[in-house]
């Protein structure tokens, strides 16, 4: 069916006898609309329109082309043309629900309206029964800035709603990533990346939620609210089109990605505070500005843009509320999310603005603890985050609830302020909970306290030369730690047999921000290659000049780091210090950097095959056995090169997402943000803050903070097991006892009969049994609990090369 009123005639007089009350109301409203079209007044001047007969005896006919232009209108109706378009749009909204809905016993909802049982007026907006109105538009619900999308448009945008395009799945349906083309005379073949929510219209509830999103987000605008671009429908399918938020949800970065061990970099405390402040501002805008209760504030409904700016989404349960407790809404059907919803609301079924405050308090605890509001697989006393956290806070054990990745990072003053405001948000009595404005003030104070406690921010350092070539001895030791000492020459640092070299000074280009902005087309979302706690990686193009002549454009990868913390600067600096001085076929090449104002950017060679993570866990074309060995050998050579020196480099973050592949599947290690110089003066290890990725970090490092060169070997062993099984290091979706891959698989690695039952099913019949057994044995050795019992990376390289050079053997055939 068409998204607009079909270009056909509907005889209202003939239809009237068969209509129920809802449809009669619809026709009455159509009559009112057409009457308004005849007598609409603009600046006291009557509109001259063709006369129409009254609704009882007329045919309603709508020009589709006129309705399609409705998206260009403004909120304030002005002029004959705009009034006519707006009236036509309203007719389409009235007709669609009852004209196209199949006969049923359910009551039809006429027009685009939000469900709420009582009346309430806030400023220009009035909520009455099942109709939401705005007196500025003569009582009609108009969203002229929203575009009406056809089913064909969204179907094409999502490649026929391909499973590969799914961003998120929930009770509402599925959220897809798509590309909407916007061809115009000025911009040919332009477009934008969007998020498309597809709802199944199986009941009136889904329809009401769809209506609610359109009604609220269609008329609200705030930097911390996700932008609704448009909507549409087709038979029983409803869909909404939003701006795409490339960094996913807050829930992803707090706990979901950690469980999957997928490109997971924990958010810094400053990042978390800024996200919370953004959410607070969104709620304050809803509460103080419009008296709207969101009713579903939770981490998965807080989405993040490319700079990790927070935006509140999902208004499917939102209702118009009140600033006073005595005038709260009554809603017997609206229920939010278990563990995040105000207990007082669940008890009374009367939501207030303070219901959102409670839910925001739960989010604050999730941010601090790095845990989900409800974790059914946890110990019984830790099942409810609020109960567990508040008990610890009350007993003075605040440090016990802080997320492991944040321990040692939060200043005491900032922590005290944050915990206090979270605790007051969760007060049992709604009246004693603070306003959102008060919460914002306290969160901003916590951020100021954290910034004061930290060292000088990166923008205090005025030049790249000062950063890369400091004169102060302590800074030189911190920054220039890869330069050989007087007693160590280049030959000592790098082994020629490993095919690499050390440069005396960073050999990288300094890019201007404008150059990189042009290369990535203003850092557009469709250029995003990957996202992590470090920031966002974009694909770009630069012109390479050779011998005084213009060369062809070369693809590059541009990593734009979050500059909001000292940690972000340290990782940026570390990348330059390591990759700027090291050259090896199995290390990704750093082409340059940019430091302007607060922008921290790194430029790398572009790796067309992406990461090993994509091919091993996401691709529909599994990697063959020989390619897996080739990748492992390349990655091992890169790590052996780092280790083979007196000034050993500990990589500290070996995992599939950091192994990049060129067009021939040659492996190159990337991301040296966590790399650290190894032990000196006869020590066996260095002691440092625990950083890295859960599931790959060596047990001795996680337990004690002691980092050995062979801690990297453990991480390599984890990846070996992933290569053998095709399974992720951590996955809580697996049955109990199988969440941690190493713990589950280690007993199978030394027994051939058990091994064949856990080999990646995609390799069935294609791998040599003896080679697989040898690879499993190597993994077992790499995963030894004692670091000294693990092989060196040079020994790992030799073993892998021996396995790869072995003549073709019998291929294993069996069924799982």
From TrEMBL:
Family stated for the protein in its record? In the C-terminal section; belongs to the protein kinase superfamily. Ser/Thr protein kinase family. In the N-terminal section; belongs to the leguminous lectin family.
Which segments constitute the Protein kinase domain?
161-447, 523-803
- What's a single GO BP term from this record? defense response to oomycetes
Q: Name one GO cellular component term.
A: plasma membrane
Which membrane topology describes this protein?
Single-pass type I membrane protein
- Sequence positions that bind ATP: 560
Region annotated Disordered, chain positions: 450-473
Q: Which CDD domains does UniProt cross-reference here? A: STKc_IRAK (cd14066)
Its EC top class is transferase
- Location within or outside the cell: Cell membrane
Q: What is this protein called?
A: non-specific serine/threonine protein kinase
Q: Is Nucleotide-binding found in the keyword set?
A: yes
Protein species of origin: Perilla frutescens var. hirtella
Q: Name the Gene3D superfamilies on file.
A: Phosphorylase Kinase, domain 1, Transferase(Phosphotransferase) domain 1
Looking up Pfam families in the UniProt record yields: PK_Tyr_Ser-Thr
Question: Under which EC number(s) is this enzyme classified?
Answer: 2.7.11.1
Q: Which GO terms describe its molecular function?
A: ATP binding; protein serine/threonine kinase activity
Q: What is the lineage of its organism?
A: Eukaryota, Viridiplantae, Streptophyta, Embryophyta, Tracheophyta
Superkingdom of the source? Answer: Eukaryota
Which InterPro entries does UniProt cross-reference here? Kinase-like_dom_sf, Plant_Ser_Thr_Prot_Kinase, Prot_kinase_dom, Protein_kinase_ATP_BS, Ser-Thr/Tyr_kinase_cat_dom, Ser/Thr_kinase_AS
Q: Name the UniProt key words of this record, in alphabetical order.
A: ATP-binding, Cell membrane, Glycoprotein, Kinase, Membrane, Nucleotide-binding, Receptor, Serine/threonine-protein kinase, Signal, Transferase, Transmembrane, Transmembrane helix
Q: Does the keyword Signal apply?
A: yes
